[in-house]
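Incident log entry.

Two folding requests arrived from the same account within the same minute. Monitoring flagged them as a possible duplicate submission, but the sequences differ. Recording both here for audit purposes.

Request one:
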Amino acid sequence: MKRALVTGGSGSIGAAICRELSINGFHVIVHAHRRLAEAESLAAALREAGGSAEAVSFDVCDNAAALAALTENLKAGPVQVLVNNAGIHDDGLMPAMSEAQWRRVIDVSLNGFYNVTQPLLMPMIRTRWGRIVSISSVAGLLGNRGQVNYSAAKAGLHGATKALALEVASRGITVNAVAPGLIESPMLAKFFPPERVKQLVPLGRVGRPEEVAATVGFLCSERAGYISGQIISVDGAMT
């Protein structure tokens, strides 16, 4: 059974991805940082549904902590599917944005990509099969007011995705990114009422976490073996 790690796996999109990968027959490693209880609960639910899962906790921003946790986890075997889903918002207009806001968002999305992906690459390469998918955002493609930090972090992921895809293609590993648009969540509903959604999204509705997860699930499958270096939008035709 191939092993799959989903960072930020206890959030709404992350949990949907974990469920999708479990249904598709992967052993799912649900990652969390401060929400370990939620990750453990999700892993238990996946096992109760007949899947194979475990939870793991570390800070993706802490290179030493990530390396230690991943080295320990790799004792059970290589991780052949990695979904870099961990990310945060810390919004504010650039003239008023603090250095801490800038660094924190970049750190989680972009440095977190390095801290988690790099230790897993050589074990994955040795198997000559792998899938790496990073969860980006429509903000990384279009930009967004008040999210210069977030847009920069996600655009950086796009460049990293394309470059890494070239490096590992000969080893049977694909590297892609999925860029969601407005995806259903309690927080989103506060800021995007239905009339605003219809203005922004040509399809006239927000997306569901399961729709993002379905795309990730496909990219992690055998059927997607010839797709690599791509940024795939799941955004109702916003881009």
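Request two (distinct sequence, not a duplicate):
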Amino acid sequence: MVDTEQVTQMIIENSVAFAPRILLAILTIIIGFWIVSKIIKGMEKALSIKKMDASLRHFLESLVSIMLKALIILAAAGMVGVETTSFIAILAAAGFAVGFALQGSLSNFAGGVMILLFKPYKVGDFVTIAGQSGTVRKIDILVTILKTPQNVTIYIPNGPAFTGNITNFSQEEVRRVDMDFGIGYGSDMKKAKQVLEKTFKADKRVLNEPAELFVAVKELGDSSVNLTVRAWVKSGDFWGLTFDMQEAVKEAFDKEGIEIPFPQMDVHMKNK
């Protein structure tokens, strides 16, 4: 039979022996977590001073906090006699298994980190990503959220977003508007160029820098002389000027008697 007194005595002795270790481990966790909170607050203040992107700042703070707390827990486990080497090996194996199962999500996670670090686009930019165009509404760790001009929300995984082609229409302050206008072969070409120059320069949105307005003959088409106009505007005025000039040039050409041709076919009939 089991001697109850011996078992009780053993439990008391083990408790007395392990009590200091357990208390020390608990104190280590409490004090360690308190120190981590102070470190994170200091880190938050330092990154705010550097005006780092809010999404990236929160991500880095969370990552550092998790890593430091994990180290403190491992240290506390070692104090009470837990074999941390085996524990770390188990965590590594579990992490590998989870990582293999979630490799697509990890790719998006890595893409999100790279986007936040290198900033090929930011919230408010109008971009084309993975063949989708819209205004960037939010950049999460896993996805980028776009809002199209038709008010449709698009979620694009950050992995393909970062590794694919990105066209940012808002990154530069100014953009060049390239527009082509066709006139009939019987119209006065020099007069048409003067009308185009006058019409564009009358619009205050047209800038003189980085280059002045450019008007020239682009090509001699099948049924028209095609003139090209290159004008610099602020990025926000790009579409407004493009649409307005279509109407303004048509009215100016009509007023000056300049023909805008349209495709046509002449059919000749022969009597046999």
